[in-house]
Amino acid sequence: MRTKRLLTRLDRVFARLDREPERPAHIDVPVMNRHRVVLFTATLAFYVAIVWAVVITSWLVRLDWQVMFFRPYQQWPEIHAFLDYYVVLGQRGPTAVMVTAWLGWRSWRQHTLRPLLTLAASLLLLNITVGAAKIGMGRLGPHYATTIGSNEMGLGGDIFPSGHTANAVVTWGILAYLASTPQARRWLSAISAVVSLGVGLTTVYLGTHWLSDVVLGWAAGLLILLALPWFEPLIARAEVWIFALRDSWRARRARTAPEPAGSPAPAPVGAPVMVTQPTSVEGDMPARETAAPRAPVTLAPGPHTTRSERTPVTPVGSRRPPQPDRVPRTTTTNPSTRPVTGP
User: Is the separation of the CB atoms in 225 and 177 below 8 Å?
Assistant: First the structure.
């Protein structure tokens, strides 16, 4: 009796994905066309210009100090509690969990791992590029500034560019990047732009970032979204590699899986002896041509004796039941010896 193997949750997820291994035809993968290259180049030039304006302590640094002295959190204290919660939309952990849940459902419905792998690639690029810029420039925030009017660069800080702003641009903008229709892409682009703009201005209101930090964070996040088409071939290869790894893991687990309950006991130690029907030789009676071939006989392992070596077994006595009115036979055939039954 064969029992059905119970599927784990991971097996059910991959079984759902295996139902349609190819990506749906109506979902286009963005490519690095000329328009996107121009936007990427312009955004990169803007990024470099902001950094240079802060390094030389230009009018942008003076604007940073003016906004800091304005203290928006003191001008509008009634919205402080709301913005304390709103700024969470730019924090790495909560936004990653929310967007991962949505894209995980998208992966389930579209039978592909591309949404989740694209999000992972974008967050990896965000951590590398923005983290390296923060550490490399070492700018202090408004609450830790030491000299009025200075750019506060190279003092061991980590707020330039704004991580909250860049994270909001990437995590919410990835939804527009992965949209399946042009209309959905336009709506999601507008929503992500409003959310990231609000998160950046909220950090300025709370006094945790300079205004130039927020502007550079917008540019840093946009650069990652514009550069994602260059990583699409790598994402596709990663998806193929994950499914190949899954298949090898399944095969290895099938080889090492225990026998299910109710299966027959294993054969005894020793190879079984296969006995086949002997072929006819010259002089023997030819075999019937219409007879069906016999299946080979399997004998248990061990020494076997031939039929001539076995002790013959003969029955003792008559095999018929006893009959009282029956006269036993005699060895003679003389009719005079027969009993007379009539006059």
Answer: yes
Token pair for 99: 């967007």
Closest to 174 in 3D by CA, of 238, 240, 136, 227:
227
138 sits in the region (left: phi over 0; alpha: psi -120 to 50; else beta) called left
pTM score of the predicted model: 0.67
Residue 223 and residue 40 in contact, taking contact as beta carbons nearer than 8 Å: yes
First to last CA, the chain: 76
Backbone phi and psi for residue 173, each to the nearest 5 degrees, phi listed first: -70, -20
Over the stretch 72-110, which tens digit does the pLDDT of each residue have? 999 999 999 999 999 999 988 899 999 999 899 888 887
Please name the helix (run of DSSP H) or strand (run of DSSP E) that holds residue 275, with its range, or none: strand 273-275
Show the tokens assigned to 66: 């003016």
Residue type at position 195? V
Strand partners, 297: 275
Length in residues, the chain:
343
Summarised one tens digit per residue, pLDDT across range 254-263 is 888 665 566 5
Pick the more confident residue, 292 or 128. Answer: 128
Nearest to 276 by CA among 292, 297, 305, 291: 297
Residue 298's DSSP bridge partners are 274
* pLDDT of res. 258: 66
Distance of alpha carbon 66 from alpha carbon 146, whole angstroms: 15
Report the chain's mean pLDDT, rounded to a whole number: 79
Task: Please state, in angstroms and rounded to a whole number, the distance separating the CA atoms of residues 195 and 168.
Answer: 7
DSSP, residue by residue, 164-220: HHHHHHHHHHHHHHT-SSHHHHHHHHHHHHHHHHHHHHHHHHHTSS-HHHHHHHHHH
Q: What angle do CA 134, 98, 36 make, to 5 degrees?
A: 60
Residue 145 is encoded by which pair of tokens? 């500034």
Residues 206/83, Cβ–Cβ less than 8 Å: yes
Torsion of CA 190, 177, 134, 140, to 10 degrees: 10
User: pLDDT tens across 271-286, in order?
Assistant: 454 545 555 444 444 4
